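re the bet — no i am not wrong, look at it urself. input seq straight from the record:
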Amino acid sequence: MDLLYFRILKNNKMLRYLIAFFLLVLLASCGKNDDGKVNDNNPYLTAPIVNLNLNLNLPEYNPLQFPGNYLILSQQGIKGIVVYNVNNSLYTAFDLSDPNHLPSNCSKMTLEGIIATCECGDGNKYDIVTGQHQSNQQSYPMLAYRVLRNGNTVSITN
């Protein structure tokens, strides 16, 4: 039976090309780092270890029960972490340290609506929903953390 499959494979060029294509796609999709981080090459920031579980039943985390609200966890991350509720099943969490500066007195960003602004005088502004810089596409995005909601618990990790 194995000999029959080998003969079919040997005589069918299209099948060989198809198998080669799938192997190529499989190999191309492999990477050395599959953790989903977008800031791996940022020379300014190193991600601190973050492992938080926020119980939404507690009053201090109540704003995160409603879409469009955010909460700042000032004692976490490098300069604090902002957690944003997009739609009750999707949350984002980003560090409030400007990703295009070494951490300093001025690199802690402030929020106005969904825009985080650096206080270093260079006008860096970022969207806390996507983490992207508002005007300079060559800049590093905000340092992102993984966020998962399970029941009434929001877990933030890196």
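see?? The longest strand covers residues 144-150. told u. also The longest helix spans residues 13-28. so pay up
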